UniProtKB/TrEMBL annotation:
The protein, known as: Secretion system C-terminal sorting domain-containing protein
Positions of the Secretion system C-terminal sorting domain: 361-426
Signal sequence bounds: 1-25
Organism: Aequorivita vladivostokensis
Tagged with keyword Chaperone: no
Pfam families attached to this UniProt entry: Por_Secre_tail
Keywords, alphabetical: Signal
InterPro entries, per database record: Secre_tail
Amino acid sequence: MKKITFSVKSVLLACFLIGAVSMEAQVEFKLQTEMFTRFNDVNDNGQGVTTGQYYDFASNVLINMEPEATGLASINNNGDVSGQMYFDEPNGIMQPAVKKNGVWTPIGWFPTADPAQSGFTTYGISPNSKYVTGQMSIGCCDFGTFLYDTETEELFEVFDPAGETLTAYAVTNDGLMVGWLDQPDGGGTLRVPAFFNKDGDITLIPDGQLPQFNTNTIGDINSSNVMVGDFDGQPFIYDMNTQTFTTYDAPQGNSATFTSISDNGIAVGFEDVDFQIREAIIYHPDLGEQPLYLKDVLSDLGVTINTADGMLGTAYKISDNGNYVAGWVNGPPVFAEGWMAYLDDSILGTQNVLQNTVSFYPNPVENVLHLNSKEMIDSVAVYTITGQKVSNVTFNENQTELNLSSLASGVYLVKVSSNGNVENLKVIKQ
């Protein structure tokens, strides 16, 4: 794997020149001092969950979960939570559960599963709170995915027809799940990135290619059906709309993964820099062609990384709006202290933060985007949130129309160049 290095200060300076960094950015970093505070998730309001506590970034306060709950897994922008409750408290048997509108509801087990002999892990809750997903087994070894519909209270069993293990880590509003499949006849463990639905329609990525590494996965999916994960030790971004699969090199060229992606295309994860030592990474096209260390980005913005080893360890989740990143420091994950960073949304050039000289409508757009600028528009370039240029048009006028009808639905970055400046617009294509 090729080793690629960057000057973070040079990258950030370049971002400033194109409007990606604002002098008004308010970036913060908060480290927990107690063990067992690793963060599992964070939402747009800076509300996070550890395995047993709720967290509020603004107040930096941790609050124990409700007595009826026995574990927390994820939280969405509604404040609804996936987790677990007791199934049989005297015998210590748990079950998946969901907290919706402030009320915890048990999900239960597959009808043919013996809770005393089976296992489960709860993972994601959809942004609209309709679905909860995770892994569940029938007996000791037959593992599949569960999908629970909180509206109909149906529990769906999703298994690989070939009988191999199937696991989901995240789920969309439409019930599309992402995770991995243990490839049939793999001669042992061979986890392949996969997405699938409740009907058992399974798609492996990249198409027609099996990994050499034993463990690979899709870790997350955003509202535009853009997925992130790792394949043969390289972090990847897969755009389901364009079927574009792109791998990236970690800063030191070691094995790495993207664990989470925001709706505006910011991916986070970690690189394995040494034995059981990780360093958090962050990627967005406006920061450069390859991922950077999150600690370097924060340090260049004046933030002190006050961890014991000066490293961030694991970046595990980023909020949908891209403003909050949560994870935990190096050490045994079960005992690790958690951390959370606030990234002002002007950092990554996904908002109109430079001169505010360009107005545009409608957004979301179906076909034609109207642009109006105080300065003469020289050119307009359109990028997917993975950094792929899909359109580049030259103009010489203040008002213009941009036809986006041929693009697939999703989030795009529209870069408008005028009088030597570049303004970045985030546009949602319906």
